[in-house]
Amino acid sequence: MRILINAGHSVNGTDWGACGNGLREAEVNKKIAMKLCDYLMDDGHTITYFQQTKSVNDVWQFENKCNYDLTISIHCNSFNSTANGHEVLYYPTSIKGKKLAQSIQTSLVKTVGLRDRGIKQRDNLCVLKRTKSTAVLVETAFISNPNEAKLLREKPDLFARAIAIGVKNYLNS
Known about the structure:
By secondary structure, this protein is of the alpha/beta class. Helix content is 43%, strand content 25%. The protein has a 6-stranded mixed beta sheet with strand order 4-1-5-8-6-7, sandwiched between helices. It has a two-stranded antiparallel sheet with strand order 2-3. Strand 2 and strand 3 form a beta hairpin.
């Protein structure tokens, strides 16, 4: 299986994403994504890591050149200090995307244990709308919530392992 792992936002400072509790989303996403790459490679998949440099369009444009089977975009949510939980987004007409989103969501809730915010359709995100492969966007936790930010800071491996288990379960179903 050829899988593109996208760490959302840019670590070069053009788009850090959300910031909260001393964390920058792009940096958190990168840590989780790099560990996820290792897990999926250990399972025998061909993995490409990608993080945007200029704009969000970088992701789908790169993906569409390379013919991947799956695209997984890693992100952190942000709202306020009490908002909490995991959610996985998929494109409304993607049946495979919905199945992958549910598998990853189930694994995140079981493995990490934050509130189940469910899977959600999103038709306005280019990483879901414009990619040729089956794509999901994983909102791992709320960077704006101090308790969840602590988990993101201290246990990026836990999130990566949960996502890898979700991918494995999806592929075995």
